[in-house]
What does this fold into?
Amino acid sequence: MKKAAVFYNSNNKENIKILNNLEKILNKRKIELIKICVLNKCFNNIKADFAISIGGDGTVLYASHYLVKNDIPLIAIKGGGLGFLGSIDSDEAEKFIVDYLNNNYKIINRTLLEVKIRDKTFIALNDCVIKSMDLRTFYTKIYFSNEYISTYFSDGIIISTPTGSTAYNLSAGGPIAHPHSRIILLTPISPHTLTHRPVVLPDTAVLNIKAIEKTNPTNPNIIVAIDGQQSVNLKTDEVKIFTHSKSFKTIVAKNYSYFEVLRKKLSWGERDEVSVKV
It folds into this structure.
């Protein structure tokens, strides 16, 4: 291990405190640290043995778009709110970095989506969301490997990875998927037909999506949002979505349990004890 990249928010005092403590540990190991503030534009060709994100899920998503190109694994240290991607609590960060450097860890390979619009290609760790800028309902005609699925009349469509199943997909009524699942989730946002429900597709799927705005079919005001980080005006173009050839590697503790994360974040199995007076 010779070099590490760290993603953080320079306006967050807690981020800076964690960063300073980690820097001391890495300096002792003679590991060079590349500091990347998420408030600034990142340079594309990052070269490091591993990376660290300090913050919430947004920081992890920001980092993933740059790290996957060079297969750089990421340690995600929690520093946000209801985040599912941060696996290391801030008070355990220093201990875990030492564990990692001593080869005491495991890796989760997370599926990525590749999104093609015109001559542009994007990578998504969580999801690709097609929605109207005018907050209007519109039609989306969707094909699965050239097989027609249906035409949805809704507020939008979410195409999600298993990792992103606990993000916007969950809020829209989609299912939770284990990150090791080999699937793609298709979830309509507030569909105007009750029978249009979320669909689980194999990760071999190639989705072709055409959006049509009835009030303005020749120039629809529809965008495609990638992980909530980037957005593209769709116009009349078709969106092509499929599983990316690479996976995104996240470094977690050996005793990491996805179901423990769900129990904590979603309060599974907990209930309020209410005393009823008769």
Q: What stands out?
A: The longest helix spans residues 13-28.
